Each structure stands twice: as structure tokens, then as C-alpha cells.
Amino acid sequence: MNTTITSTCIDRMELYGGSSEQALSAFYRYSDPERRKLIVKTFAHLFKKYEDGGMFDITRPLDMLGIPHLPPRRDK
Question: Radius of gyration of the chain from Cα atoms?
Fold first, then answer.
């Protein structure tokens, strides 16, 4: 896993994450660069959810999420 985490990833953790993810994002945000690498290595499974292309990346197309596209509704 990449040890460089974007601010967008941290923002997603703070917005969509539970209390543990929010605490982890604050810990990451205020840590020095060496500690950040250790945090990412230790909690890689959590950061992966919130990074670009992860399950909380709302810019992903619906096909990648396994959600079928429905045809537009046509009222009679």
C-alpha cells in the first residue's frame, strides 16, 4: 500500500467514518511524517476504504460498485 495518504482520504474518514476512523484521521493529520508512515502501515485496511477508488470514493462509477444502472423512469 502507498504510504502517502491524500487530504481527500483523510477528509472522507472524518466525514463517513465512525469514531475510530475519525480519531485515526486526527492522529494522522497531526503526526510527523515518520509516524504517518507507521500509522498507514498499521491501519492499511482502514485507509484503503477511504482512498481514491475505495468504497467511500463517491466519484466512482456505479458499475464499479456493482450497482446496476436503471433506465430513466417514464411516467405515463
Answer: 16
Higher confidence at residue 36 or residue 59? 36
With a cut of 60, say whether residue 60 has pLDDT above it: no
Backbone angles phi, psi at 44, to 5 degrees: -55, -40
Distance CA 27, CA 56 (A): 20
**Which three cell numbers, joined as nine digits, stand for 25?**
484521521
Residue recorded with cell 470514493:
57
Residue 38 falls within a domain, yes or no? Answer: yes
Instruction: Give domain status of residue 24, yes or no.
Output: yes
Q: Which structural domain range is residue 54 located in?
A: 7-58
Number of domains in the chain: 1
